[in-house]
Design brief:
alpha+beta; 13 strands
């Protein structure tokens, strides 16, 4: 339970920090055309500090078939999707979010938007040492709604509202 609470706090902090740390980055587009499949690979993000480039292909209004180019080699991310509208292209951050002295790669993908709603997925890669040098391993990021559903219980009556968050109980009386 304590570990779950720490992860919940970490994600809340992460979502609070991301808007504060957001900065305008000129998105450079480079296209690589292969003759066999006529697939265009687009450079959607580059972080020289981390030594990474993020590529994807565009098809039917979506970016897909992501490839993360690292100094240690390429990671293929076939299940990642992002809308192709450049306003909502992936946001990438290179921050030490778990205070272990190593910076993590954080990718925020927008899978849908409209009518005051933006649907996003977060992917976090933690730096690890391998026989070939430093590399990154993806850390599972739980859905924030799943964390809320697991940890928050509510009860509403005509006279009061009770909200339990973990072991803390809050009661609000109707006046």
């Amino acid at each position: 339970m304590r570990l779950l609470t720490k992860f919940t706090v970490l994600f809340v902090i992460l979502f609070m920090l991301i808007p504060l740390e957001t900065y305008a980055v000129e998105k450079r587009i480079s296209k690589i055309v292969t003759n066999q499949h006529k697939t265009e690979e687009i450079l959607v993000e580059s972080l020289p500090e981390a030594g990474i480039n993020l590529y994807a292909t565009e098809r039917e209004g979506m970016l897909e078939n992501f490839r993360l180019h690292l100094l240690s080699g390429d990671k293929y991310l076939p299940f990642w999707f992002n809308v192709s509208n450049q306003t909502y292209w992936p946001n990438t951050f290179y921050k030490d979010i778990n205070q272990d002295g190593k910076k993590e790669l954080i990718f925020v993908l927008t899978t849908g938007y409209g009518n005051d709603i933006v649907k996003q997925n977060v992917h976090v890669f933690h730096q690890i040492k391998t026989n070939l040098g430093n590399s990154y391993k993806e850390i599972l990021v739980d859905n924030p709604m799943a964390i809320i559903l697991k940890n928050v219980k509510t009860k509403l009556t005509k006279t009061e509202a009770i909200i339990n968050i973990g072991t803390k109980k809050n009661c609000f009386k109707n006046r």
